[in-house]
Write a structure and sequence with these properties.
alpha+beta, 55% helix, 274 residues, elongated
């Protein structure tokens, strides 16, 4: 009798365990079915939104195509890829727009450049020149109106029958540094005035002048030299020919300037001797 009761209790326990497993399995299946249902519902809603947006964009495209004149209408099917004609039309329109916008930008840039030059000229003209003197030397430091830095050291020596003046550009001066945007030149000059008779003198001049340069940019271009010297280089495209032409013109202008300079120098010596 006791064994029968024990067997019955075991069967009941096994049945409960089996039913619990079945319930868990069914609950899990219901959970996953609900998740799949929610996912399908969300997917269908997203597809509906995309279709609505696509139809809206198609309606906009159809309206734009209907408003275009026949000469510029696209030549592809409504659902086909862009044709080369459409691509070329877009590029042509953008190129014309760039050319239209370019000229105002060039004009504005030129105005800014003119303003910058005027501001630099104003600053330069309001900076006093520096002059340091000793018994027979003089340091003259100034920035010209066209942006050239002059830091010239002059020395003069008087002997029995001759007078010597020496000039030298001081390029590295701790007291008077050259701004990187200003031009300067390697420059040195020797002037000797010798008396050959009571009424005549012999003057000799030797100068060595380099091309203008900037500290960080090197020598200035031929176009800038031509603009500074008033030299017309219109029509000269080759750089070597332009350099040679500008060099010849600068030499010609220097020789032409030498005659009035010599007359002025002689007049100063005559005035100082009286």
């Amino acid at each position: 009798m006791a064994s029968i009761r024990s067997a019955h209790a075991t069967d009941v326990s096994n049945t409960d365990t089996f039913l619990a497993i079945v319930d868990n399995t069914l609950a899990r299946r219901r959970y996953f079915r609900e998740k799949q249902r929610i996912y399908r519902h969300k997917l269908n809603a997203d597809v509906a939104i995309v279709k609505a947006q696509f139809e809206h964009l198609q309606s906009i495209r159809d309206g734009l195509q209907a408003s275009m004149p026949p000469s510029v209408a696209p030549r592809e099917a409504s659902d086909g890829p862009l044709s080369w004609y459409s691509i070329a039309t877009v590029f042509k329109r953008e190129a014309l727009q760039v050319l239209t916008d370019r000229q105002p930008l060039i004009t504005q840039t030129q105005e800014y450049q003119s303003l910058t030059k005027a501001m630099k000229r104003f600053v330069v003209m309001n900076i006093p020149a520096v002059e340091e003197c000793t018994a027979n030397t003089r340091l003259f430091c100034i920035t010209t109106a066209d942006g050239a830095f002059v830091n010239s050291l002059q020395g003069h020596f008087v002997e029995a029958d001759r007078f010597i003046v020496v000039f030298r550009q001081v390029e590295h001066d701790e007291a008077h540094a050259c701004h990187p945007l200003l031009r300067q030149r390697h420059y040195r000059s020797w002037i000797e005035v010798r008396q050959v008779s009571p009424t005549h003198i012999l003057m000799r001049l030797v100068s060595h002048v380099s091309r203008s340069f900037r500290a960080h940019d090197g020598f200035v271009s031929s176009d800038e030299l031509a603009a500074l010297g008033g030299i017309d280089v219109t029509g000269i495209e080759d750089d070597d020919q332009k350099d040679e032409y500008v060099r010849r013109e600068l030499i010609r202008l220097g020789n032409a300037y030498f005659v009035p300079w010599r007359q002025r120098f002689t007049s100063l010596m005559q005035a100082s001797s009286q």
